[in-house]
Design brief:
CATH class of the largest domain: Mainly Beta
Number of helices: 8
Helix content: 10-25%
Strand content: 35-45%
CATH topology of the largest domain: Pnp Oxidase, Chain A
Length: 353
């Protein structure tokens, strides 16, 4: 088949699909659909922060159709339709991704490393200063995300915020999240801004079981994080602020001369509420793999059951039974759809004191 015939056939098949695919339904570049028969592997990653969503596409480009004929290059945008019609139909969204890098290996496999266009725009340096004095955090976040749909809770207006020229809006959003003990993330065409303390208050969205083939949702394998000592050494702090009339303060609104086993760290805050929020964070618990499920997404609650071959102790209670999804990688390869899920739990450093 000639080179022209290959290109024509690619566009013909892309424009007239005869079946639904797994995970990646359609990819459009400059409003032209790409032939998914060239797709080797796709990984769609959703995260509980502003590092995602990400998309990794591996394409067979032995004939250089994508690089030369279509002219795909970094910082161009792809429109991707994601869905899972064959299984549970819980994933159905259209997202735009910016190509960051596109390395090529010796086997002519072209890898497109992409980031959500919404997040990419938030990582572009600001060209002018913006000041938010006395505004509620949710109002500041709504202003920074350029009126994209957002699901937010109400937060007290305690700190003032500013975005200076050359500063990335994503950095300010990360600062707002930390000072309010919250998470800010984007997935499936919507931003989320929620307090960490309320994440586990919701009812578990799904249940997953290990070593029980009778259940619909099963963990194929799992691995515990075992990162508690490392996290403790890096995060166990007594944050100290300064008030013009009261002097140094800690999170308990008391004089900072009070004894504490945690190392002291001076920060530029005068509110005990903010000082307490700095000690609230999420810590990894475990990760597991399972069959593909579009309902799995960052921020939802999972009920986990770890079964053991033991009559008297059938459940392993040393592992957490209720967790928050920190990130999930939806992977398609060789007509197989799998998920790799990383989970977390809230950690307040006061438990170490």
């Amino acid at each position: 088949m000639s080179r022209f015939s290959l290109i024509y056939e690619s566009f013909r098949l892309a424009a007239n699909p005869t079946f639904e695919h797994v995970l990646i339904q359609e990819i459009r570049y400059q409003d032209k659909p790409l032939d998914l028969s060239w797709l080797i592997e796709a990984v769609y990653i959703e995260t509980l922060d502003l590092s995602g969503p990400k998309l990794i596409l591996k394409l067979n480009d032995r004939e250089a159709i994508f690089r030369d004929d279509l002219g795909i290059k970094p910082f161009e945008t792809l429109m991707v339709t994601l869905a899972d019609p064959y299984r549970r139909d819980e994933l159905d969204t259209i997202e735009h991704f910016v190509i960051l890098t596109m390395p090529m290996d010796a086997e002519s496999v072209l890898t497109l490393n992409c980031l959500s266009e919404v997040i990419f725009q938030l990582k572009m340096p600001a060209t002018q200063a913006r000041f938010f004095v006395g505004e509620a955090p949710e109002s500041v976040v709504k202003s920074l995300v350029n009126h994209t749909a957002i699901n937010t809770s109400a937060f007290p207006a305690i700190e003032d915020y500013h975005l200076l020229p050359g500063m990335r809006p994503s950095r300010l959003l990360k600062q707002i999240a930390r000072e309010n003990a919250a998470v800010i993330y984007y997935q499936r065409q919507q931003f989320m801004f929620k307090p960490i303390s309320t994440l586990l208050e919701k009812t578990a969205h799904l249940s997953y079981h290990y070593n029980d083939t009778r259940q619909q949702n099963q963990m194929v394998s799992f691995k515990k994080a075992n990162a508690d000592p490392l996290i403790q050494s890096f995060t166990q702090r007594q944050f100290i602020g300064w008030h013009l009339t009261q002097g140094s303060l800690n999170a308990n609104n008391t004089n900072a001369t009070a004894s504490s086993s945690a190392p002291r760290e001076l920060v530029g805050f005068k509110s005990p509420i903010t000082l307490a929020n700095l000690n609230t964070l999420l810590t990894p618990t475990l990760e597991f793999t399972c069959l593909g499920n579009g309902a799995l997404q960052a921020g939802i609650i999972l009920q986990l059951v770890f079964n053991r071959n033991h009559t008297e102790l059938p459940i392993d209670e040393s592992l957490p039974d209720k967790v928050i999804i920190q990130s999930v990688a939806h992977r398609y390869s060789a007509q197989k759809y799998q998920c790799r899920v990383k989970t977390c739990l809230p950690l307040n450093n006061e438990q170490y004191h």
